[in-house]
Every structure is written in structure tokens, then in C-alpha cells.
Amino acid sequence: MEQAPSSALGDHLEGIERGAIVQALEKTRYNKTAAAKLLGMSFRALRYRIKKLGIE
Asked: Which of 7, 15, 45, 52 is a Cys-bridge partner for 41, taking CB atoms 3.0 to 4.6 Å apart?
């Protein structure tokens, strides 16, 4: 069965977000404070996203 376009878009955006977070974490040697700053978000927002996306 075909996915609804909004669901496919959501999955695509989630993949982009996951890639950006993982890249920032690798670049900062998994320093979440520095990675959040690099991404232009708060530490708490990054921590929430990491948990939501199942990273770590």
C-alpha cells in the first residue's frame, strides 16, 4: 500500500534531521552542548530530538 505524501515527506525530513544531528555530534566528538550550538538550537531541544529520533 502506498504511503500518504505527508507521511513520506515526514520520513524524508526526519532522515535529513537525523543526518544533520549525527554529523554535528561526530564533528564535536559527541559534545552535545557544542553540537547544539553548531545546529543553532538549545541543548534541551537537541537532547529531545536525539531521544525522539533514537540516536545514541
From this structure: 45
Q: pTM for the whole thing?
A: 0.84
Q: Which of 53, 55, 7, 52 is nearest to 30 (CA)?
A: 55
- Map residue 52 onto helix, strand or coil: helix
Cα–Cα distances in Å, from 2 out to 8, 10, 24, 45, 50?
9, 14, 33, 32, 28
User: Left, alpha or beta for 3 (phi > 0: left; psi -120 to 50: alpha)?
Assistant: beta
Please give the mean pLDDT across all residues of the chain. Answer: 92
Q: How does pLDDT run across 8-32, given as a tens digit for each residue?
A: 999 999 999 999 999 999 999 999 9
User: What is the spatial distance between Cα 21 and Cα 51, in angstroms, rounded to a whole number?
Assistant: 11
